[in-house]
Please model this.
Amino acid sequence: MDKLLIHGGRRLQGEVRISGAKNAALPILCAGLLVPGTLELSNVPQLHDVGTTLKLLDRMGVKSTRDAAAGTVTLDGSSVTSTEAAYDLVKTMRASILVLGPLVARFGEARVSLPGGCAIGQRPVDQHIKGLQALGARIDIEHGYVVARASRLKGTRIVTDMVTVTGTENLMMAATLAEGETVIENAAREPEVVDLARALIALGARIHGAGTDRIVIEGVDALHGGAYRVMSDRIEAGTFLCAVAAAGGDLRLTHCEPDTLDATLDKLREAGLRIECGPDWIRGTMDGRPKSVNVRTAPYPGFATDMQAQMMAVNCVADGTGVITETIFENRFMHVQEMRRLGAEIDTEGTTAVVRGKRGLSGAIVMATDLRASAGLVIAGLVADGDTLVDRVYHLDRGYDRMERKLAAVGASIERVRTVDDA
Ligand code: EPU
Model:
């Protein structure tokens, strides 16, 4: 099992190319199921989750060709042979639920394993199911699977109980092929929802209002093939900015979309990071120690829950005390115990963490528990005195495109290691 060995204390200096967004690429790949032709994608990040999605699609008969280094994937959804997503893949990647809407919309049936528990919260999919039922699908839970059947979905008005990103995406995809108009109220406004809508529009879908909380979809009889470039990963960009805010230095991020990062940029400015932005680049410069900030996660355009662990790492070494409140997931503080092992002073009460910043952390062996927790631990390791070994790096590989290479290229002392006991 791979681990990352970090020798802390180096400043970061140089340029980092930001990759395509994981949380846009995964739904857009699943949209390939809606298309009786080819979908050519570019700016697809090199991530484990992309590989899992292609495997899932392949089992259904969607053929893909991928040039991972070039970031291109071509999908051919013209001869789908199965409408099942099996437990063995779904349990490793919850985003697999995104095949449910496309399958029932195009083929009138889907059998998708229910995702089980998750490290960061219960994460039910009741809103996906409720929305599909409103569109006319009959849904049964059979042997751990969601089984959906419909002759043709019928457009309707759906009001989700809470803001859900993949829930909005699943229903938006399903509605593209429904008869008549669908309105999704209380829709997620995340940039990744907008990116999926743009991709669907390029394939012939009629969608208005993506990026607002009311999305209107006029169903069409069929989508057609097309090409699309996946948006840049705002969470990867934010993660590198937190790294330079904590470790100090001067980083220029290229191929990014600063407009999608407002809440993160505001908090980092408050923490003392000097930020300059161009149309597709962000420069972050930090001399000295960051200042503590209070953060409350919220649906977009609020502060992203996917940035919470990384911002906590900044607060761990900041001047002052920062309060972090997680409002999206009920158990997304798994990194706290591990950050404490590095000497951080953090108290938690429910979904609030009080972080008393310290001048330094001290390197230790720590265990990654989920994707963004891993990123937070890597940032803490960049600042800690001595060696930090981050175990269970597979979490990081699911969602960051060669993070350690990008960090090493800007001066971090970080390497991937395999320990003898794993050989
Ligand atoms: N929720 C329900 N019922 C539902 C759907 C959601 O109760 O049917 C709850 C969830 O349990 C949670 C809240 O609603 O408390 C919001 O969850 P949401 O559905 O928005 O999360 P998601 O769509 O499962 C996506 C991202 C996550 C990101 C969240 C929040 C993808 C593939 N995943 O998950 O990304 O944290 O939105 O922004 O887009 C990550 O990249 O590390 C990651 C976890």
